[in-house]
Hints:
Elements: H1 8-11, H2 17-24, H3 29-33, E1 39-42, E2 57-70, E3 77-83, E4 88-94, E5 110-120, E6 123-127, E7 130-134, H4 141-149, E8 151-154, H5 163-176, H6 186-192, H7 197-205, H8 210-241, H9 254-261, H10 268-282, E9 288-293, H11 299-312, E10 316-320, H12 324-338, E11 356-359, H13 365-377, E12 382-385, E13 399-405, H14 412-419, E14 427-432, H15 438-444, E15 449-453, E16 463-469, H16 475-489, E17 493-497, H17 525-534, E18 542-545, H18 551-563, E19 568-571, E20 584-589, H19 597-604, E21 614-620, H20 627-637, H21 641-651, H22 654-662, H23 678-694, H24 702-722
Parallel strand pairs: 4-6, 9-14, 9-15, 10-12, 10-13, 11-12, 13-14, 16-21, 17-19, 17-20, 18-19, 20-21
Antiparallel strand pairs: 1-8, 2-3, 2-5, 3-4, 5-6, 5-7
The structure holds adenosine-5'-diphosphate (ADP) and magnesium ion (MG).
Amino acid sequence: MVGLDTALSSAIGGRTVKPLEKAFGITTVADLLRHYPRRLAERGELTDLRELRVGEDVTVLAEIKTCATKGFRQAQRLEVIITDGRGRLELIFFGARQQWRAKDLQPGVQGLFSGRVSEFNGKLQLTHPDYTLLRSSQLAEQEADLYAGALIAVYPATKDIRSWVITNSVSHVFEVLDPVPDPVPMEVRARHGLMSLDEALRAMHQPTTRAEWFQARHRLAWDEAFAVQLVLAQRRRAASVNPAMSRPPRPDGLRAAFEAALPFTLTAGQVAVGETLTEELSGTEAMHRLLQGEVGSGKTVVALRAMLQVVDAGGQAALLAPTEVLASQHARTIETMLGSLAHAGQLGGADTATRVVLLTGSLGTQARRAALLEAASGAAGIVVGTHALIQEHVQFADLGLVVVDEQHRFGVEQRDALRGKAAAPPHLLVMTATPIPRTVAMTVFGDLETSILSELPAGRSPITTSVVPVAEKPAWLERAWARIREEVEQGRQAYVVCPRIGADVAEDDEPDLDDDRPARPPLAVVDIAPMLADGPLSGLRIGVLHGRLTSDEKDRVMSDFAAGSLDVLVATTVVEVGVDVPNATVMVVLDAERFGVSQLHQLRGRIGRGQHASVCLLVTELPEASPSRERLDQVAATQDGFALARLDLETRREGDILGAAQSGRRSRLKLLSLARDEKLIEAARAEAFDLVAGDPALEAHPLLATQVAALVAEEQAEYLDKA
Ligand code: ADP
Ligand code: MG
């Protein structure tokens, strides 16, 4: 019996098993069959050679035009030119020992050629490509027709494992594989017109028509959505078994006092969301809410009101921020906003007062112990922190509400760990400035209900964004620096953002965008800051902020900048989220093409927060016609975060979105496209919730139960890895 769980080595054996494991981690039949073809090529349909790019691993279908031996002795080489009728590409085989190939590589012969594109003397070439030749010309006419129409699965491949090696392994597997049982109930399949899993797997790898291949993809994508939604349905059910504590508002409490002293009027959106939260916190079903709001829309006040309601009801609230800079800024902001309401037990503290503590990984032992004590005793009504908050030894007296700021940096598991610190499940409020389409919210963020703050508080000033194309207009960069000087002379402040810290230390993966950017390393904070200080910005007070500073250093720089004792902050994307200095009116983003669309939008949200008009300059060396450059133009053209998020979703691969949102899903969601498959996800969700409602443990569907368990285990493993 050969099934999906069978080890590949015992199913097919052979020399390719080891390399498959090495290249893709494939060890079982299932692993191999889930290594889906990226696309289909049609024999006879030639690949467009004009679209190749240097550095790409490609497999092209083309016809040999010429084949010639050049050079002598050691320098002997075989040069083969292939063409698809439009572009041409050179194949090179070095060495006298390669000359035998000339016999096969005859003009007129078609083949699949595979290798990494390189450039020599301005011409694109493949050095020592792998190939299989298609002998269509030798076939009988009828056979040739068949052959020309046949679909070839093109797999993600590497230097060592070529696409057709995978094709061969897959067909060996199908020769021995027993019919694959289908975990998805028959009725569900019938309702949605899904082919069986067995059919789908075969059609995915060996389709006879394109239509069949798309049907197979659809079915397999459906499985991905279904499995995730089953997990969510079970979670939702488990959560409803344990009621949350009701935290009703008090008319004479902290929250009322805070509201009475608020220096501004809440926007209509803040009021409306506030009402929803008030109600949900008063209920016994744990709140699970995602609050989306444009940068600067005033999410913090909304969260603070919710936290105060919980404190009034005798509970505590925890606020999780993605970075130490943000955590300490939040703590500072909240303390300032609360004033005497945050000084319980201190001189001048109000009667109803509570305390706010900051708990981060870098606190000294002394401070840390004090903070832990305040959290555990309940003296602190509000505990603000970073990941350190979810460490095991942090205890709360009565955690009633967890607020997560900028969710995209947190995984579901981390959230759950924090929720596990309360006797009854705490209410949950997640805030994000990255607008998230409904499908993503449903799939990636679990079953969060969504609220949106769409209007900005009154009195915000416009941000003008321009692209500074230094390749075509070098003088504009001078203008950018001059603009900073002008603003500083007016008493304003500026940000200069670089993609890298510098000094050659391993840094975070940069976003994987198009390959059309300059070949030099990205500009770095530690290089740019002194360069500006000695050059275009000499005489200005320049500070530096990046993730490698200690948190004390970061804090000092941030508070200096906030206090106005620095004019310019040269920083990495640590300023991306939350940093709030209304007096900053210029932002210059260097190597702007290195950042994603949503990221740029986030960055630019750091300005335009006061009463002065602001300007954001996106500096790039890219030429006008490149895709990355077009992306920058789009960011410059609109302030609508939702439009940009949609653009992001379309232009970036789903893996990246998931990676950014929650990397745990990356390996599993291979086919599901959050942008494209909205309907499918909703249908799968409805079926999953139905199924779990009638059969919470999926006892009648053992195969599904196993799948779901594996998914949960994978997610936990992922979480443990990161912790
Ligand atoms: P974000 O949604 O980006 O987190 P914040 O909560 O940091 O935004 O709010 C940005 C700024 O707007 C803060 O200085 C905050 O005090 C201020 N703010 C919030 N709500 C209002 C309002 N209704 N009217 C005026 N200013 C407000
Ligand atoms: Mg914020």
